[in-house]
Amino acid sequence: MVLTGKKIVIxxxxxxxxxxxxxxxxxxxxxESGADVYIICPVGKGYDSYYEKIDDIYIYRHSLPLExxxxxxYFFEYACSLFHQRRLLKKxxxxxxxxxxxxxxxxxxxxxxxxxxxxxxxxxxxxxxxxINPELYIAKFNRKDIFxxxxxxxxxxxxxxxxxxxxxxxxxxxxxxNRGAMDPKDVYVVRSGPDLKRMKIQSPKIEIxxxxxxxxxxxxxxxxxxxxxxxxxxxKIILERHNYNDFHCYIIGDGPVRKEMEELSINLGLNEFxxxxxxxxxxxxxxxxxxxxxCVNPDIxxxxxxxxxxxxxxxxxxxxxxxxxxxxxxxKVSAQxxxxxxxxxxxxxxxxxxxxLIKDQDKRNIMSKIGKERICxxxxxxxxxxxxxxxxxxxxx
Length: 397
What we know:
Elements: E1 7-12, H1 21-32, E2 36-42, E3 51-54, E4 57-62, H2 71-95, E5 101-105, H3 112-119, E6 124-129, H4 133-141, H5 146-161, E7 164-167, H6 170-178, E8 187-189, H7 206-209, E9 214-219, H8 228-240, E10 247-252, H9 258-267, E11 274-278, H10 282-290, E12 294-297, H11 303-307, H12 311-318, E13 323-326, H13 329-335, E14 339-342, H14 347-358, H15 361-379, H16 381-396
Parallel strand pairs: 1-2, 1-5, 2-4, 5-6, 6-7, 7-8, 9-10, 9-12, 10-11, 12-13, 13-14
Antiparallel strand pairs: 3-4
Helix pairs in contact: 1-16, 4-5, 8-14, 12-15
């Protein structure tokens, strides 16, 4: 195998491993292909050890001083991360007699600052492009200021130093080529396909249904641009305008505005109909999602969300769940007929689409079949894994 004996360092700033599913799947694929894999990532809930070895993959974790809030908070967080990444790269280089590749998973687009010295030593640089950060900044703060211009600069520099860039979809590939000035032959699309050994279909759990006919599910980050407020407002509309209350909604996940969204749910009088689970085990997540009749993606329309592929859409489809989401470009590319598409940022229409599925079981069944077939035939991880390994093999051919 081309990768046998190659030493690969993967740096991820915003999530611990193995919690980040995409990066963990990539890490295991590289290991299965014969490479030695070293991870640099932060500690996190349930992942408190500063060093451990899982599935023969070395994981070096570091602390972060705070959960970023506001532009200055992010700046401080990233500065601390860069310090620890530089320290741990030096440690891995010394303890393991060098390495051949550094893979940087954004955000942020600052990791190249720690990579440049190793590029001079002949190390290859792979950019795994998870987020388009200039657009993410606008989504979070709704302004184009000095920090926005800095993010544009950092993005350009990251592409400049990259030997190859891995895009999660065609929209990201076009950004790498048009905005990052990368050679098209050096930009590869590897989607975040679900692992069918993990996302298993199982029978619904009666206790999760809470004696309701319909169960609605959401899984993902609870942040500013994820539209959880839209979902809660839609539930209020379903209760009051549609006069329907035979349902319960689970919101699975955590994030910077979770407490704010829980307070909004209370203020809207939704306690009886909405459960915030926080981060939960894989098994409980599967129990809940497999008990759902409808799954939702209320990500609001903005440039970031429109061009991004959301992992939750793929996971819903893998479990055969009909979906309601806004009319986002990459959301439609992923789900096609497995989803209904509400008018962008129109909360009333989002509620109407949910009601449409509640009242039409035949439509739900058809959409379920479409989603499962798309994942099983085209979009699961075993297919994407082969593409991912080919991107790495291109570095050494």
